[in-house]
Design brief:
With 440 residues, this protein is mainly alpha-helical. Helices cover 78% and strands 1% of the residues. Helix 13 packs parallel to helix 18. It is globular and about 65 Å long.
Length: 440
Protein backbone atom coordinates (compact mmCIF):
# COMPACT_ATOMS: atom_id res chain seq x y z
CA UNK A 1 0.00 0.00 0.00
CA UNK A 2 1.39 3.37 -0.92
CA UNK A 3 0.59 4.95 2.44
CA UNK A 4 3.28 2.76 4.00
CA UNK A 5 6.03 4.02 1.73
CA UNK A 6 8.58 6.50 3.03
CA UNK A 7 10.44 7.42 -0.10
CA UNK A 8 12.23 10.72 -0.32
CA UNK A 9 13.22 12.38 -3.56
CA UNK A 10 16.64 13.98 -3.43
CA UNK A 11 16.57 17.74 -3.55
CA UNK A 12 18.73 19.68 -5.97
CA UNK A 13 20.79 21.09 -3.12
CA UNK A 14 22.02 19.20 -0.04
CA UNK A 15 21.86 22.46 1.87
CA UNK A 16 18.23 23.24 1.04
CA UNK A 17 16.67 20.63 3.40
CA UNK A 18 18.65 22.10 6.30
CA UNK A 19 17.66 25.65 5.35
CA UNK A 20 13.98 24.70 5.21
CA UNK A 21 13.88 22.67 8.43
CA UNK A 22 16.07 24.97 10.54
CA UNK A 23 14.21 28.08 9.38
CA UNK A 24 10.95 26.38 10.41
CA UNK A 25 12.64 25.55 13.73
CA UNK A 26 12.90 29.29 14.45
CA UNK A 27 9.25 28.93 15.47
CA UNK A 28 10.15 26.28 18.05
CA UNK A 29 13.16 28.35 19.15
CA UNK A 30 10.84 31.29 19.80
CA UNK A 31 8.36 29.08 21.61
CA UNK A 32 11.12 27.69 23.80
CA UNK A 33 11.82 31.23 24.98
CA UNK A 34 8.13 31.62 25.86
CA UNK A 35 7.98 28.17 27.42
CA UNK A 36 10.87 28.77 29.78
CA UNK A 37 10.72 32.51 30.46
CA UNK A 38 9.10 32.25 33.91
CA UNK A 39 12.47 31.48 35.50
CA UNK A 40 13.55 34.99 34.52
CA UNK A 41 10.34 36.90 35.25
CA UNK A 42 8.59 35.00 38.04
CA UNK A 43 9.67 37.53 40.67
CA UNK A 44 8.24 40.38 38.62
CA UNK A 45 5.04 38.43 37.96
CA UNK A 46 4.65 37.59 41.67
CA UNK A 47 4.95 41.28 42.59
CA UNK A 48 2.75 42.55 39.74
CA UNK A 49 -0.12 40.10 40.28
CA UNK A 50 0.49 39.22 43.98
CA UNK A 51 0.48 35.44 43.43
CA UNK A 52 1.97 32.50 45.37
CA UNK A 53 3.76 29.43 43.94
CA UNK A 54 0.53 27.58 43.14
CA UNK A 55 -0.96 30.47 41.12
CA UNK A 56 2.37 31.12 39.41
CA UNK A 57 2.48 27.45 38.44
CA UNK A 58 -1.03 27.66 36.99
CA UNK A 59 -0.14 30.82 35.06
CA UNK A 60 2.85 29.12 33.48
CA UNK A 61 0.99 25.87 32.91
CA UNK A 62 -1.97 27.52 31.15
CA UNK A 63 0.34 27.63 28.11
CA UNK A 64 0.71 23.86 28.30
CA UNK A 65 -2.97 23.20 28.90
CA UNK A 66 -3.54 24.69 25.44
CA UNK A 67 -0.68 22.58 24.09
CA UNK A 68 -2.15 19.36 25.40
CA UNK A 69 -5.59 20.20 24.00
CA UNK A 70 -4.44 21.30 20.53
CA UNK A 71 -1.34 19.19 19.77
CA UNK A 72 -3.22 16.19 18.41
CA UNK A 73 -5.51 18.35 16.21
CA UNK A 74 -2.42 20.27 15.08
CA UNK A 75 -0.78 17.03 13.93
CA UNK A 76 -3.91 16.02 12.03
CA UNK A 77 -4.05 19.43 10.33
CA UNK A 78 -0.35 19.23 9.39
CA UNK A 79 -1.01 15.96 7.58
CA UNK A 80 -3.80 17.58 5.55
CA UNK A 81 -2.83 21.20 4.90
CA UNK A 82 0.21 23.28 3.97
CA UNK A 83 2.81 23.12 6.75
CA UNK A 84 4.19 26.51 5.73
CA UNK A 85 0.83 28.25 5.97
CA UNK A 86 -0.01 26.64 9.31
CA UNK A 87 3.35 27.76 10.73
CA UNK A 88 2.79 31.36 9.62
CA UNK A 89 -0.75 31.52 11.05
CA UNK A 90 0.07 29.84 14.36
CA UNK A 91 3.25 31.83 14.91
CA UNK A 92 1.34 35.04 14.18
CA UNK A 93 -1.07 34.01 16.95
CA UNK A 94 1.86 33.42 19.32
CA UNK A 95 3.47 36.79 18.66
CA UNK A 96 0.17 38.62 19.11
CA UNK A 97 -0.52 36.74 22.35
CA UNK A 98 2.97 37.57 23.61
CA UNK A 99 2.25 41.28 23.17
CA UNK A 100 -1.07 40.84 24.97
CA UNK A 101 0.65 38.99 27.84
CA UNK A 102 3.23 41.74 28.25
CA UNK A 103 0.52 44.42 28.42
CA UNK A 104 -1.94 42.51 30.66
CA UNK A 105 -3.12 44.62 33.63
CA UNK A 106 -4.92 41.71 35.32
CA UNK A 107 -3.95 38.15 36.24
CA UNK A 108 -6.85 36.57 34.34
CA UNK A 109 -5.82 38.43 31.18
CA UNK A 110 -2.25 37.17 31.53
CA UNK A 111 -3.58 33.61 31.88
CA UNK A 112 -5.76 34.07 28.78
CA UNK A 113 -2.91 35.35 26.59
CA UNK A 114 -0.60 32.65 27.93
CA UNK A 115 -3.21 30.09 26.87
CA UNK A 116 -3.41 31.61 23.36
CA UNK A 117 0.38 31.36 23.03
CA UNK A 118 0.07 27.68 23.90
CA UNK A 119 -2.42 27.13 21.07
CA UNK A 120 0.12 28.48 18.59
CA UNK A 121 2.90 26.43 20.15
CA UNK A 122 0.97 23.24 19.39
CA UNK A 123 2.20 23.60 15.79
CA UNK A 124 5.84 24.54 16.52
CA UNK A 125 7.73 21.29 17.08
CA UNK A 126 5.40 18.96 15.17
CA UNK A 127 5.66 21.15 12.06
CA UNK A 128 9.48 20.92 12.12
CA UNK A 129 9.29 17.14 12.46
CA UNK A 130 6.67 16.94 9.70
CA UNK A 131 9.02 18.84 7.37
CA UNK A 132 12.03 16.75 8.45
CA UNK A 133 10.15 13.54 7.57
CA UNK A 134 9.61 14.89 4.04
CA UNK A 135 13.01 16.47 3.43
CA UNK A 136 15.32 13.78 4.94
CA UNK A 137 15.77 10.01 4.67
CA UNK A 138 14.43 7.90 7.60
CA UNK A 139 17.94 6.72 8.54
CA UNK A 140 18.92 10.33 9.35
CA UNK A 141 15.82 11.27 11.35
CA UNK A 142 17.32 10.87 14.84
CA UNK A 143 20.26 13.10 13.95
CA UNK A 144 17.99 15.71 12.32
CA UNK A 145 15.64 15.61 15.31
CA UNK A 146 18.62 16.11 17.60
CA UNK A 147 19.71 19.16 15.60
CA UNK A 148 16.15 20.56 15.72
CA UNK A 149 16.06 20.15 19.49
CA UNK A 150 19.56 21.63 19.84
CA UNK A 151 18.58 24.68 17.83
CA UNK A 152 15.36 25.16 19.79
CA UNK A 153 17.15 24.68 23.11
CA UNK A 154 19.13 27.81 22.36
CA UNK A 155 15.81 29.54 23.00
CA UNK A 156 15.84 27.96 26.45
CA UNK A 157 19.31 29.39 27.05
CA UNK A 158 18.11 32.84 25.94
CA UNK A 159 15.25 32.50 28.43
CA UNK A 160 17.72 32.11 31.30
CA UNK A 161 20.57 34.62 31.83
CA UNK A 162 19.92 36.96 28.84
CA UNK A 163 16.20 37.31 29.60
CA UNK A 164 16.94 37.60 33.33
CA UNK A 165 19.33 40.49 32.63
CA UNK A 166 16.84 42.09 30.21
CA UNK A 167 13.98 41.80 32.70
CA UNK A 168 16.15 43.35 35.42
CA UNK A 169 17.22 46.22 33.17
CA UNK A 170 13.96 46.90 31.31
CA UNK A 171 11.29 45.38 33.54
CA UNK A 172 9.55 42.12 32.69
CA UNK A 173 6.91 43.74 30.46
CA UNK A 174 9.39 45.48 28.16
CA UNK A 175 11.62 42.40 28.03
CA UNK A 176 8.66 40.33 26.77
CA UNK A 177 7.78 43.02 24.20
CA UNK A 178 11.33 42.76 22.82
CA UNK A 179 10.80 39.00 22.57
CA UNK A 180 7.61 39.61 20.56
CA UNK A 181 9.51 41.87 18.14
CA UNK A 182 12.07 39.12 17.53
CA UNK A 183 9.21 36.71 16.86
CA UNK A 184 7.89 39.01 14.14
CA UNK A 185 11.30 38.94 12.41
CA UNK A 186 11.23 35.14 12.53
CA UNK A 187 7.84 35.14 10.78
CA UNK A 188 9.39 37.05 7.87
CA UNK A 189 12.25 34.54 7.59
CA UNK A 190 9.85 31.59 7.64
CA UNK A 191 7.67 33.22 4.97
CA UNK A 192 10.78 33.61 2.80
CA UNK A 193 12.50 30.21 3.21
CA UNK A 194 10.12 27.41 4.24
CA UNK A 195 8.68 25.08 1.57
CA UNK A 196 6.24 22.23 2.18
CA UNK A 197 8.20 19.51 0.36
CA UNK A 198 11.16 19.04 -2.02
CA UNK A 199 10.94 18.88 -5.79
CA UNK A 200 9.85 15.46 -6.95
CA UNK A 201 7.65 14.91 -3.90
CA UNK A 202 4.50 16.30 -5.53
CA UNK A 203 3.01 12.97 -6.65
CA UNK A 204 3.62 11.34 -3.28
CA UNK A 205 1.99 14.34 -1.57
CA UNK A 206 -1.09 14.01 -3.79
CA UNK A 207 -1.36 10.28 -3.07
CA UNK A 208 -0.99 10.90 0.66
CA UNK A 209 -3.86 13.37 0.53
CA UNK A 210 -5.96 10.82 -1.36
CA UNK A 211 -5.16 8.17 1.26
CA UNK A 212 -6.09 10.54 4.07
CA UNK A 213 -9.35 11.45 2.37
CA UNK A 214 -10.29 7.80 1.88
CA UNK A 215 -9.40 6.93 5.50
CA UNK A 216 -11.31 9.79 7.10
CA UNK A 217 -10.40 11.76 10.20
CA UNK A 218 -11.88 9.38 12.77
CA UNK A 219 -9.90 6.41 11.49
CA UNK A 220 -6.61 8.32 11.51
CA UNK A 221 -7.30 9.36 15.11
CA UNK A 222 -8.08 5.76 16.06
CA UNK A 223 -4.89 4.45 14.43
CA UNK A 224 -2.70 6.96 16.27
CA UNK A 225 -4.34 6.25 19.63
CA UNK A 226 -4.23 2.44 19.25
CA UNK A 227 -0.52 2.33 18.48
CA UNK A 228 1.28 1.39 21.72
CA UNK A 229 4.55 2.79 20.39
CA UNK A 230 3.05 6.29 20.36
CA UNK A 231 1.92 5.96 23.98
CA UNK A 232 5.18 4.55 25.33
CA UNK A 233 7.47 6.92 23.41
CA UNK A 234 5.36 9.92 24.43
CA UNK A 235 5.26 8.91 28.10
CA UNK A 236 9.02 8.29 28.15
CA UNK A 237 9.76 11.73 26.72
CA UNK A 238 7.22 13.38 29.02
CA UNK A 239 9.12 12.15 32.09
CA UNK A 240 12.66 12.59 30.71
CA UNK A 241 11.73 16.19 29.88
CA UNK A 242 10.97 17.05 33.52
CA UNK A 243 14.32 18.81 34.20
CA UNK A 244 13.52 21.25 31.38
CA UNK A 245 9.86 21.56 32.43
CA UNK A 246 10.66 22.20 36.11
CA UNK A 247 14.27 23.42 36.45
CA UNK A 248 14.46 25.17 33.10
CA UNK A 249 11.00 26.71 32.91
CA UNK A 250 9.82 27.86 36.33
CA UNK A 251 11.44 26.54 39.49
CA UNK A 252 15.18 26.24 38.81
CA UNK A 253 16.19 29.81 39.65
CA UNK A 254 13.94 30.14 42.75
CA UNK A 255 15.26 26.77 43.98
CA UNK A 256 18.90 27.81 43.63
CA UNK A 257 18.29 31.25 45.15
CA UNK A 258 16.20 30.15 48.12
CA UNK A 259 17.58 26.66 48.83
CA UNK A 260 21.25 27.22 47.93
CA UNK A 261 21.65 30.96 48.55
CA UNK A 262 22.89 32.04 45.12
CA UNK A 263 21.91 35.33 43.51
CA UNK A 264 19.59 35.40 40.52
CA UNK A 265 22.37 35.79 37.94
CA UNK A 266 24.39 32.89 39.37
CA UNK A 267 21.25 30.76 39.49
CA UNK A 268 20.48 31.57 35.85
CA UNK A 269 23.96 30.33 34.86
CA UNK A 270 23.20 27.00 36.53
CA UNK A 271 19.72 26.54 35.02
CA UNK A 272 21.01 27.45 31.57
CA UNK A 273 23.26 24.38 31.85
CA UNK A 274 20.21 22.12 31.50
CA UNK A 275 19.71 23.60 28.04
CA UNK A 276 23.44 23.60 27.28
CA UNK A 277 23.59 19.89 28.11
CA UNK A 278 20.61 19.22 25.87
CA UNK A 279 22.17 21.29 23.08
CA UNK A 280 25.27 19.09 23.18
CA UNK A 281 23.47 15.85 23.88
CA UNK A 282 20.60 15.93 21.38
CA UNK A 283 22.59 15.64 18.13
CA UNK A 284 25.13 13.37 19.85
CA UNK A 285 22.50 10.93 21.11
CA UNK A 286 20.64 11.14 17.79
CA UNK A 287 23.81 10.34 15.85
CA UNK A 288 24.67 7.48 18.22
CA UNK A 289 21.21 5.96 17.85
CA UNK A 290 21.39 6.16 14.04
CA UNK A 291 24.95 4.78 14.09
CA UNK A 292 24.19 1.67 16.17
CA UNK A 293 20.79 1.17 14.52
CA UNK A 294 19.00 1.03 17.87
CA UNK A 295 16.43 3.23 19.63
CA UNK A 296 15.63 1.48 22.94
CA UNK A 297 19.19 1.01 24.29
CA UNK A 298 20.24 4.70 24.33
CA UNK A 299 16.79 5.65 25.65
CA UNK A 300 17.16 3.22 28.56
CA UNK A 301 20.72 4.27 29.38
CA UNK A 302 19.71 7.94 29.36
CA UNK A 303 16.95 7.25 31.88
CA UNK A 304 19.17 5.27 34.27
CA UNK A 305 21.96 7.87 34.35
CA UNK A 306 19.47 10.74 34.70
CA UNK A 307 17.94 9.04 37.75
CA UNK A 308 21.35 8.83 39.42
CA UNK A 309 22.16 12.49 38.69
CA UNK A 310 18.90 13.92 40.04
CA UNK A 311 19.35 11.98 43.31
CA UNK A 312 22.84 13.49 43.65
CA UNK A 313 21.41 17.00 43.09
CA UNK A 314 18.72 16.41 45.69
CA UNK A 315 20.77 14.77 48.44
CA UNK A 316 24.48 15.53 48.00
CA UNK A 317 25.26 18.07 50.77
CA UNK A 318 27.12 21.36 50.32
CA UNK A 319 27.24 21.46 46.53
CA UNK A 320 29.18 24.50 45.34
CA UNK A 321 28.35 26.57 42.27
CA UNK A 322 30.64 24.69 39.89
CA UNK A 323 29.37 21.31 41.07
CA UNK A 324 25.81 22.42 40.37
CA UNK A 325 26.81 23.76 36.95
CA UNK A 326 28.36 20.37 36.07
CA UNK A 327 25.40 18.39 37.44
CA UNK A 328 22.79 20.52 35.66
CA UNK A 329 24.76 20.20 32.43
CA UNK A 330 25.00 16.44 32.95
CA UNK A 331 21.27 15.98 33.49
CA UNK A 332 20.56 17.99 30.34
CA UNK A 333 23.04 15.79 28.49
CA UNK A 334 21.61 12.46 29.68
CA UNK A 335 17.94 13.37 29.33
CA UNK A 336 18.70 14.22 25.70
CA UNK A 337 17.89 10.57 25.05
CA UNK A 338 14.29 11.78 24.87
CA UNK A 339 14.87 13.03 21.30
CA UNK A 340 15.03 9.43 20.07
CA UNK A 341 11.35 8.99 20.88
CA UNK A 342 10.35 11.22 17.95
CA UNK A 343 11.98 9.16 15.17
CA UNK A 344 10.67 6.06 16.98
CA UNK A 345 7.13 7.42 16.57
CA UNK A 346 7.79 8.34 12.93
CA UNK A 347 9.14 4.85 12.21
CA UNK A 348 6.22 3.16 14.01
CA UNK A 349 3.47 4.74 11.90
CA UNK A 350 2.61 4.94 8.18
CA UNK A 351 4.14 8.04 6.57
CA UNK A 352 0.68 9.35 5.73
CA UNK A 353 -0.05 9.57 9.49
CA UNK A 354 3.24 11.12 10.60
CA UNK A 355 1.74 14.44 11.68
CA UNK A 356 -1.14 12.91 13.60
CA UNK A 357 1.09 10.35 15.35
CA UNK A 358 3.66 12.99 16.31
CA UNK A 359 0.85 15.28 17.45
CA UNK A 360 -0.55 12.55 19.69
CA UNK A 361 2.90 11.72 21.10
CA UNK A 362 3.65 15.40 21.65
CA UNK A 363 0.33 15.80 23.46
CA UNK A 364 1.51 13.21 25.97
CA UNK A 365 4.92 14.87 26.18
CA UNK A 366 3.63 18.38 26.83
CA UNK A 367 1.18 17.11 29.41
CA UNK A 368 4.22 16.94 31.67
CA UNK A 369 4.43 20.73 31.64
CA UNK A 370 0.68 21.14 32.12
CA UNK A 371 0.46 18.66 34.99
CA UNK A 372 3.74 18.87 36.87
CA UNK A 373 4.41 22.62 36.95
CA UNK A 374 1.29 23.34 39.08
CA UNK A 375 1.75 20.06 40.99
CA UNK A 376 5.29 21.14 41.89
CA UNK A 377 3.95 24.47 43.16
CA UNK A 378 1.18 22.72 45.09
CA UNK A 379 3.69 20.38 46.73
CA UNK A 380 5.81 23.36 47.72
CA UNK A 381 2.82 25.10 49.28
CA UNK A 382 1.79 21.95 51.13
CA UNK A 383 4.28 22.42 54.02
CA UNK A 384 5.13 26.09 53.41
CA UNK A 385 5.27 28.22 56.58
CA UNK A 386 3.72 31.25 54.83
CA UNK A 387 6.90 33.37 54.84
CA UNK A 388 6.83 36.27 52.34
CA UNK A 389 9.64 38.78 51.67
CA UNK A 390 9.12 41.76 49.34
CA UNK A 391 5.80 40.26 48.17
CA UNK A 392 7.59 37.04 47.07
CA UNK A 393 6.92 33.68 48.83
CA UNK A 394 10.06 32.18 50.41
CA UNK A 395 10.35 28.37 50.61
CA UNK A 396 12.73 26.17 52.58
CA UNK A 397 15.18 23.61 51.11
CA UNK A 398 12.94 20.83 52.47
CA UNK A 399 9.95 22.30 50.60
CA UNK A 400 11.90 22.12 47.34
CA UNK A 401 13.32 18.65 48.07
CA UNK A 402 9.84 17.27 48.68
CA UNK A 403 8.56 18.68 45.38
CA UNK A 404 11.64 17.52 43.48
CA UNK A 405 10.67 13.88 44.08
CA UNK A 406 8.50 14.32 40.99
CA UNK A 407 11.65 13.84 38.88
CA UNK A 408 13.12 10.53 40.15
CA UNK A 409 9.66 8.96 40.25
CA UNK A 410 9.06 10.23 36.71
CA UNK A 411 12.38 8.82 35.44
CA UNK A 412 11.49 5.38 36.83
CA UNK A 413 8.11 5.48 35.07
CA UNK A 414 9.90 6.56 31.88
CA UNK A 415 12.18 3.53 32.09
CA UNK A 416 9.14 1.26 32.40
CA UNK A 417 7.64 2.91 29.31
CA UNK A 418 10.74 2.36 27.16
CA UNK A 419 10.85 -1.32 28.18
CA UNK A 420 7.34 -1.68 26.72
CA UNK A 421 8.34 -0.32 23.28
CA UNK A 422 9.35 -2.35 20.23
CA UNK A 423 12.79 -1.81 18.69
CA UNK A 424 12.50 -0.23 15.22
CA UNK A 425 16.18 -0.63 14.22
CA UNK A 426 15.93 2.89 12.72
CA UNK A 427 13.64 1.68 9.93
CA UNK A 428 9.88 1.96 9.34
CA UNK A 429 7.98 -0.88 11.00
CA UNK A 430 6.29 -1.79 7.72
CA UNK A 431 4.63 -4.90 9.14
CA UNK A 432 3.16 -2.90 12.03
CA UNK A 433 2.03 -0.18 9.62
CA UNK A 434 0.39 -2.76 7.39
CA UNK A 435 -1.48 -4.22 10.33
CA UNK A 436 -2.73 -0.82 11.37
CA UNK A 437 -3.70 0.29 7.88
CA UNK A 438 -5.69 -2.90 7.20
CA UNK A 439 -7.47 -2.69 10.55
CA UNK A 440 -11.21 -2.17 10.36
Amino acid sequence: MYAMEQTHSPSQSKLLPWVVVLTATLFFFYEFVLMNMFNAIDGGLARTFSVDATKLGYLSASYFYADVIFLFPAGLLLDRFSTRKLILVSMGLCVGATVGFALSPFFWMAVSFRFLSGIGNAFAFVSSLRLAARWFEPRHLALVTGVIVTFSMLGGVIAQTPLTVAAHALGWRHAILVTAAIGFLFILLIWRNVKDYPKGFEQQYVREQQDLHSMGVLRTIRLAIRNRQNWCAGIYTCFLNLPVALFGSVWGIPYLVQAHGYNITQASYVTSMVFAGTIVGSPLVGWFSDYIGRRRLPMFLGGIISLAIILIIMYMPNLDLWSLIILFFAIGLTTSSQVIAYPMITESNPSVLTGGALGFGSMLIMSGYAIFQPVFGKMMDLYWDGKIVNHIPVYSPSDYRFALWIMPIGFILGLVAVLLTRETHCQPLAHLAATNMDEK
